Every structure is written in structure tokens, then in C-alpha cells.
Amino acid sequence: MVLEGGSRVLVGMNEHTNAGGLAKLRETLAPSGVEVVPVPHKALHLDCCLAPLPNREALYAAGKLPKESVRALDKFFDRLMPLDPDEAALHLAANVFWLNERKVVSGVVAKKTNELLRKKDFEVVELDFSDLVSLWGSFRCTVCPLERV
To answer: What are the residue ranges spanned by the domains of the chain?
Structure first.
């Protein structure tokens, strides 16, 4: 996850990323001054349990991020807000896709998440992505953007 205009990269640490990969990324990015931060989690990808918002806040799936990871992430965001546990687990509610700083694509079934985003004055475009979510992927998984809004 590239944040802060490219000056920080959060790297999800789970079965798909190991210490060797993290070390190589740090080595590659070190000359540019990019901070590489490991974030252990229990999801397929970090995007499935952490959703940075354009306003320096983030949504997270408490059941997929160990407490140590939440404490580490707390210093990078102004506020961390836990997602509804059922929406996070069953509907990958953290796996949203930002079209711009005001508009986000989210699943139609993530009602509580979408309402939270709307209360923060974001425009939420709801789509039915339930077939793909049943295969453990969602919006960011299918789009794979290189930069965050």
C-alpha cells in the first residue's frame, strides 16, 4: 500500500509475503528515502483488512489485523475505525476502490460501511460484487491500482 505521496509503503505480511521479499523491497526503495513498514495480518491481502481514506483516517477489520499491527498503524493515520465484524469478514468491506478524493466504490451489501463513509461526506457508489467476494476478492483486488487517491 503506497501512502503519503509515495514516501511510505505498507507491506502486508502473511503467507504471500515473506521477510526476504520485505528486505528486498526495503533495499530497492532505500535510495529514494521511502519508508517500508511491515503490517502482519490474517487476510488474503492487506487491502482486505485495511482501507485508508483520503482524509488520513482508515477503516480496518479488527478480526484480521493483530493488535500489534493496529497499534503500529495508529501512528500513520489520524484515526483508525473498526469495520462491522460481519461486513469485514463476509463481504470484505475494507476492499473498496477510490475513484477520487470524494467518491468510492463499495459493495452493496456493506450497508454499515457505506453509511459510515456517507456520514463522512464521501459519495459511495454501491455495486453488487458478491460473486467475486465469494472467491475472496473484491474491488481493489480486481483493479490493482498503483497509487492511492
So the answer is: 2-143
pLDDT digits (tens, 9 = 90+) for 69-96: 999 999 999 999 999 999 887 777 788 8
Q: Exposure pattern of 120-130 as b/e (b: 16+ CB <10 Å)?
A: eebebeeeebe
**Which residues have CB under 8 Å from 18's CB, separation 6+?**
none
Handedness of CA 44, 50, 52, 53 (dihedral sign): positive
Q: Which amino acid belongs to residue 139?
A: F
Is the dihedral angle over the CA atoms 57, 104, 49, 34 positive or is it negative?
negative
Q: Which residues contact 58 (CB under 8 A, 6 or more apart)?
A: 50, 51, 52, 73, 77, 79, 80, 81
Of 45-49, 52-56, 59-63, 114-118, give the lowest mean pLDDT range.
Answer: 45-49
- For 2-143, which CATH superfamily applies? L-arginine/glycine Amidinotransferase; Chain A (3.75.10.10)
pTM for this prediction = 0.84
